[in-house]
Task: inverse folding
């Protein structure tokens, strides 16, 4: 089979069968790309993963771009990303097109009334686990709380907070190197 | 020019996503619900529920959904989805070129570590902003909220199952 077709179908399979976002995809990508296809060695995969996690953007997209590039350059990265995103693009598009028609349906209204508070809870849970893992001290903890308060109550865009903290970090790092 | 706005908004979201899908939700919510008012908080909550039950990264799901909701056609979905992935292309391809150097310096990794408390606060805010009267209609909503928390955090129940159970209970009690 043509290599581009192989890349596309492998990543499409990964995209179609992982529910629950980027982190759920990692073991499946690993199985397909390292074990089954042997496209990349285990150690290299871990490097790809570390870099994809530290770069901004969608994790699954980052990994697809990176692995695609290592296989067949820029073309490979485009094909891999198309593969991993096309299934969710298609499914969500279909839902967006038809969900609008069901939004006034009595049954759908009842079901979503039950679902909404659950979703809020499901966003709070990973936050707590991340906070535990990050071992926040009094300063970083205060930064986290301040961010939440600024965004919720003063409607400050999180973009600005990321920018300010990022710039301060960079200034301090450059300053330290200068000494 | 709605398409240009959509493109720019999702490009910025893609560029500033440090720390995974939930952090991205906070950015998307702020831009799409608060700044542009393209969809309501309630619609946003429904979209998150749908994203969690369907395959694929939540960032792609959100871009596709919002793109369609805003423009009412497939082209909007396409613009938003390409825009949200484009910064990744630029950054990852750059990193690939300077791979060896990048591995040693690890600038992004330490920047990410510094930004982590902000990301945690952002996710907290994403949950906080969704505590609206539309999403929490009465005390039973809070019972569902607490139940989902226990099921997910302590019983380690699969999120999809928790959502399905929530929908099931909603159908019978409302």
Result:
């Amino acid at each position: 089979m043509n290599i581009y077709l192989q890349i596309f179908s492998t990543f499409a399979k990964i995209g179609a069968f992982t529910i629950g976002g980027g982190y759920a995809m990692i073991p499946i990508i690993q199985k397909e790309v390292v074990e089954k296809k042997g496209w990349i060695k285990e150690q290299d995969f871990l490097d790809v993963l570390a870099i994809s996690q530290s770069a901004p953007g969608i994790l699954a997209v980052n990994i697809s771009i990176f692995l695609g590039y290592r296989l067949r350059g820029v073309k490979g990265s485009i094909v891999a990303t198309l593969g991993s995103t096309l299934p969710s693009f298609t499914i969500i598009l279909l839902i967006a097109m038809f969900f609008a028609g069901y939004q006034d349906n009595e049954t759908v209204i009842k079901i979503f009334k039950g679902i909404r508070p659950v979703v809020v809870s499901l966003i709070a849970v990973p936050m707590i686990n991340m906070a535990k893992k990050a071992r926040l001290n009094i300063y970083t903890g205060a930064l986290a709380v301040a961010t939440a308060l600024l965004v919720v109550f003063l409607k400050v865009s999180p973009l600005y907070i990321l920018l300010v903290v990022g710039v301060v970090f960079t200034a301090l790092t450059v300053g330290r190197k200068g000494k | 020019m709605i398409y240009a706005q959509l493109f720019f908004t999702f490009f910025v979201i893609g560029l500033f996503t440090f720390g995974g899908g939930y952090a991205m939700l906070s950015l998307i919510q702020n831009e799409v619900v608060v700044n542009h008012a393209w969809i309501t908080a309630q619609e946003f909550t429904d979209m998150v529920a749908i994203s969690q039950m369907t395959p694929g990264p939540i960032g792609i799901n959100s871009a596709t959904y919002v793109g369609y909701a805003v423009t009412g056609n497939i082209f909007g979905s396409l613009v938003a989805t390409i825009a949200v992935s484009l910064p990744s292309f630029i950054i990852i391809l750059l990193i690939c070129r300077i791979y060896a150097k990048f591995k040693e310096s690890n600038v992004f990794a330490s920047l990410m570590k510094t930004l982590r408390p902000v990301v945690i606060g952002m996710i907290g805010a994403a949950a906080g902003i969704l505590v609206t009267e539309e999403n929490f209609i009465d005390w039973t909503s809070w019972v569902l909220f607490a139940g989902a928390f226990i099921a997910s955090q302590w019983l380690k129940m699969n999120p999809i199952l928790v959502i399905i159970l929530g929908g099931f209970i909603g159908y019978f009690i409302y």
